[in-house]
């Protein structure tokens, strides 16, 4: 009988150990399920952020693609307006206020600046015609020295 009692206690201990092991495994499974739910919700949030960033990237890419065209249209529009104003002055015979030499100097400055902004070498104006009073134009457009009144402008 003692042998049967000890065998019964051993079997009972084995069953209790198995039950404890099963409870531990069930607890681990529940923790894994909770971690999976948490990871899934985090994944949904990250996917939403990714979608927003993709949309923003597409918008910026589109803006980049259209920027050059819009800039060219704005510049061409400004050129058209300037040409129209010049033609109106010419047709109304209001050209007496034009100073060709000064305007040509401004034109050269603009073209040189455009070339620098575009990373190109500055244009050469060697073959361009000279205007009467070309020397006067450079004196008129030159900045006035603000230093010592007795000092030479070239110094």
TrEMBL record:
Residue segments, region Disordered: 112-155
Name of the protein in its database record: Uncharacterized protein
Organism: Brassica napus
